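Board notes (copied after class):
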Amino acid sequence: MQRNEIEQILKDYHWMINSIKIMRESLKYAGEGITAQYGLEAAMPKAQGATSDPVYKEVVRRSKRVKKIQEFEAKILEFQGLFHKVHDERECEVLYWLLEGRSYRWIAAHMGLSHSHIRRIKESIVDQLSPDVPNVPDVTKLKKEKCAC
C-alpha cells in the first residue's frame, strides 16, 4: 500500500465503515415492488435489448452492492493490518480519533494541541504505516557482470 493510498483510506475509513453497516442492513430485506405487472401493463410491449424481469434486475443491483462491500472490507482489513506499527501513545490517540472521523481542530482541542501539530502527528503516522522501502529490485537476482575497469 502506497503513501497516498494510506492517506486516502485514513480519510475515508469512517464513512467506509458506516457504509458497510448500512449496505449490509439494506441487503437483509427483499426488494419491494419487484413483482411482475398484471392487467393491461403486462400486455404492453416491452423495450428490446434488456430484460424486463424485475427480480433479475434486483439480483444484479444487489450483487453490485455485495462487490462494493467486499471492496471496502478488503481495503479496511489491509489498513487495519498496519496499526501495529504505531507505538507512541499520542500518535495512537490521534489515529483513533482520525478513524472516528474527527477533524484536526476537534482532535487538537481535545488533546490541547494546535491543529497544525495534529497534522504533523498524522504525517508521522502515515510515514510509519507506509512501506519502509519502495519497490527496489532484489540485488541478489541481478546478473553478475564483469567490470570494465
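Comment from the instructor: The chain has a mean pLDDT of 82. The radius of gyration is 25 Å.
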